[in-house]
Amino acid sequence: MRPEPTTSRGRRTREKIVTTAARLMHERGIGGTPLEDVLAESGTGKSQLYHYFGGKQELAVAVLEHQLERVLAAQPSLSDEECTDLRRWRDEVLAAADESGYGNCPLGAFVGQVDDDTELRTTLARLFDRWQDALTTLVRRAQAAGEIPADVSAEHLALTLLTAQQGGTTLSHLHGSPEALAGSLDDVLARVSR
Amino acid sequence: MRPEPTTSRGRRTREKIVTTAARLMHERGIGGTPLEDVLAESGTGKSQLYHYFGGKQELAVAVLEHQLERVLAAQPSLSDEECTDLRRWRDEVLAAADESGYGNCPLGAFVGQVDDDTELRTTLARLFDRWQDALTTLVRRAQAAGEIPADVSAEHLALTLLTAQQGGTTLSHLHGSPEALAGSLDDVLARVSR
């Protein structure tokens, strides 16, 4: 990955390229998004894009990182060191799903698109690990506050919650309704709540 | 949809077209699979394909139906009226996932690919409903046999199990390991087992 731009104008240009590519790749897939479309829709030139990215793969890495940042920004409970309430996280997940009209998960939509590309696959797994680690940290805070039993494995509960979020988002997208997502998250939380 | 072929040769040709299209569309997406590729890889001619299918959309409907049949064939506990054991279903799901090298769900992989096509989206939702209904029926048999408490909602448990299967398959695919899928199904089952 090339160095970050140092001027605010450079940062804006790079950001416009990444957000446009993220929108297109989320809608049409990485394979269905030629660089020409990114250039046309972001109104940037080829030389600008190649100034910031070595090519499509480097741009896709930046897109995946951008998608995780979007996910984490919509789940402030994860980074709030005061938060010990898993239901706040659950409400944030539901609110973001509702706001997107029960769209695909910004990050999960890319699973299965990167099977043939070791670098992208490794990047995506690493980003999911960051998400899961943040959720594990929230679970530990909830345990320290006595809201979740101490004998529950925080890593396992975080993985189960992320699995419920992924499957629930898929089925809520399919049906265009919150039922699958809300129901599966609530089931996991009911099992560990005091 | 056109009438089914009446000769065994016709059925074989139609089946070869559908299984080839299913493999390509599962690997590359519906949008990433031109009819030309289906013709080339199945070794059939354009006139044969148009004899059985009005076009790509009709072929895609047949592919989605074929994918559900594959899923149900790998989960014989659902149609076995003697089966009252949700763990047998869980073992079948895990065995199929292992056999595919933790690939994408044959049916779930298409969620999000059909947003702009009302007929395909309706078809996919209907096929998921059939899967969920079969799972609800298995839950009811387990309840009748006293293996699951009678006060559990069979529909809700079936949706929660399907959500765990979808999310678990996604994360097991990402990590290339059974942990997410096995862990999330076991968690749901542990909650309702006696």
Q: Determine the oligomeric state from the structure.
A: homodimer
* Tally of separate helices of chain A: 8
CATH superfamily of the largest domain in chain A: Tetracycline Repressor, domain 2
Order of helices and strands of chain A: HHHHHHHH
Low-confidence stretches of chain A: none
Largest interface: A-B, 36 and 36 residues
CATH C-level label of the largest domain in chain A = Mainly Alpha
Structural class assignment of chain A: mainly alpha
Mean pLDDT of chain A comes to: 95
Q: What would you call the shape of chain A? A: elongated
CATH fold label of the largest domain in chain A: Tetracycline Repressor, domain 2
Descriptive overview:
The structure is a homodimer of 194-residue chains. Chain A has helices at residues 8-28, 35-42, 46-52, 56-73, 86-99, 118-144, 154-175, 179-192. With 194 residues, the first copy, chain A, is mainly α. Chain A binds chain B through residues 28-29, 31-32, 104, 108-109, 111-112, 124-125, 128, 156, 159-160, 162-171, 173-175, 179-181, 183-184, 187-188, 191, and chain B through 28-29, 31-32, 104, 108-109, 111-112, 124-125, 128, 156, 159-160, 162-171, 173-175, 179-181, 183-184, 187-188, 191. Chains A, B: Residues 34-53 bind DNA. Chains A, B: It comes from Amycolatopsis carbonis. Chains A, B: This is TetR/AcrR family transcriptional regulator.
Describe the structure using short key phrases.
homodimer; 194 residues; mainly alpha; Arc Repressor Mutant, subunit A; Tetracycline Repressor, domain 2; 2 domains; 0% strand
